[in-house]
Amino acid sequence: MKLENLKTTAGIDVAGKRVLYRADLNVPTKEGRVTDATRLERIVAGLEDLSRRGARIAILSHFGRPKGGPDKENSLEPVAAELAKLVGQPVRFGSDCVGGAAAAIVDGLKPGEIAVLENTRFHKGEEKNDPAFAAEVAKLGDLFVNDAFSAAHRAHATTEGLTHHLPSYAGPLMMEEITALSRALEKPERPTAAVVGGAKVSTKIPILTNLVAKVDKLIIGGGMANTFLQSMGVMVGQSLSEPEFHATAREIMTAAKEKGCEIVLPSDAVVAREFKAGAVSETVSVHAVPMDAMILDIGPASIQHMTAVLRGCRTLLWNGPMGAFEISPFGEGTFTLAREAAVLTKAGTLVSVAGGGDTVAALNAAGVASDFSYISTAGGAFLEWLEGKELPGVAALTR
Ligand code: AMP
Fold first, then answer.
1. Which atom of ligand 1 sits closest to the CA of residue 204?
2. Confidence band for 68, pLDDT divided at 50, 70 and 90
3. Is residue 238 classed as helix, strand or coil in its secondary structure?
């Protein structure tokens, strides 16, 4: 994938053109109301720019997981209304993303006007990346702008298929995401650190394997650290662990040694006998975890050491919490380390990039998300980039 081949929307002539703009409007909602508008907020500047330059903008997006046909619950109509508030101009709504209804809306757009077309997943051809469906959608536009990095790990009709029919460009949010990830992973200022946490090793093996070959320090916390510790003979009591992945953990540690990557594991832990908020907890060395207790967070000595490691680094990539951060008091490890990363970022000594659903929730809970250099809007696509995989939606734009 040659990222230097990406064409951006800067400077292209969009005046009067019908722009098919792929966004990720798949925001969380409750009873038809948007509960977190972050993804919408992040496309506003790009939309305003295209609008100012006279583009006639038809927004395409998936929403939820409909069963291949229309249903009210997965309609994008309420999301379009929310977007209208954010862009400060009316946003029209097309009840389909192909055919006469869609064409009527798009053809009626004046330069600068915006419409949202109904959920692309109401058609089976979207997820199947059906060329005939992509061709139908393509009829509505003169050019294609993909600004949905968070959907780029899927080769669907409106993330990949459309690029075979229309001149295709990477939108500003797509470029922002790729630039931030490249800055942290491909061309970072060294030394580099990655913080990887979360529940299980098994879900993040490709990430850990890719990262040990790329970063100087790999800080491992969360439930997955238990499996690493246990693979070295440490007794972890009732902690979440995956003994069937001991060999994998050892392989990752061997690979790290060969590549000159230092793996940093917790030396102490906060343990409890119950997995619930307010459970009685104590701090112990990882070598003294009581047999009837479980590790739910990293301890203060680990935090201190990991913080010192971060202080020596210039670039940080973060995915996954250091403990069961959703239940008090087991978020302290995640929050304290996140606050330190934020302080270093604000001081200008660290470039910090984070992503993945739980991670962003944890950084928000720590109150530091806005102090990181970059927070990705992507979950799955962010993780696949960390795995070193080619994202079909990005690769299609480089061809
Ligand atoms: P992931 O989706 O893999 O990033 O995992 C996130 C989840 O891991 C969060 O819900 C945390 O509560 C959970 N988690 C982190 N550390 C631990 C731990 N030591 N024991 C149990 N669950 C944990």
1. 3
2. confident
3. coil
In a shared domain, residues 192 and 88: no
- Within a domain: 117: yes
Six-digit token pair at 289?
Answer: 């975890």
Nearest to 349 by CA among 312, 391, 298: 312
Claim to verify: residue 55 and residue 160 sit in the same structural domain:
yes
Is there an atom of ligand 1 within 6 Å of 326 CB?
Answer: yes
Pick the residue with more confidence: 90 or 1?
A: 90
Count structural domains, the chain.
Answer: 2
The pLDDT confidence band at residue 234, using thresholds 50, 70 and 90, is: very high
Does 49 sit in the ligand 1 pocket, CB within 6 Å? no
Atom from ligand 1 closest to the CA of residue 221: 16
Q: How far is CA 84 from CA 29, 142, 277, in A?
A: 16, 23, 40
d(CA 113, CA 371): 34
Which ranges constitute the DSSP H helices of the chain?
Answer: 38-52, 77-87, 99-107, 124-128, 131-138, 172-181, 205-212, 223-231, 246-259, 300-311, 332-346, 357-366, 380-386, 392-398
Helix %, strand %, coil % for the chain, to 5?
45, 15, 40
Q: Is the CB of 380 under 6 A from ligand 1?
A: no
Structural domain of 65: 3-174
What is the number of other CB atoms lying within 10 angstroms of the CB of residue 48? 16
* pTM for this model (two decimals): 0.94
H-only helix segments in 145-287: 172-181, 205-212, 223-231, 246-259
127-168 pLDDT per residue, tens: 999 999 999 999 999 999 999 999 999 999 999 999 999 999
Most informative mutation of 241, 283, 296, 334 for ligand 1 (most atoms within 8 A of CB) = 296
Q: Is residue 157 part of a domain?
A: yes
Distance CA 154, CA 384 (A): 11
Helix or strand run (H / E) with residue 296:
strand 294-298
Active site residues: 39, 200, 357, 380
Ligand 1 neighbour 361 (Cβ under 6 A): no
Mean pLDDT computed over every residue of the chain: 97
**Which CATH number belongs to the domain containing residue 234 in this structure?**
3.40.50.1260
Tell me, what's the pLDDT at 278?
Answer: 93
Assess whether pLDDT exceeds 90 at residue 230. Answer: yes
| Measured CA distances, 129 to 100, 102, 183, 205, 270 (Å) | 21, 19, 31, 28, 48
Helices (H) and strands (E) in the chain, counts: 14, 17
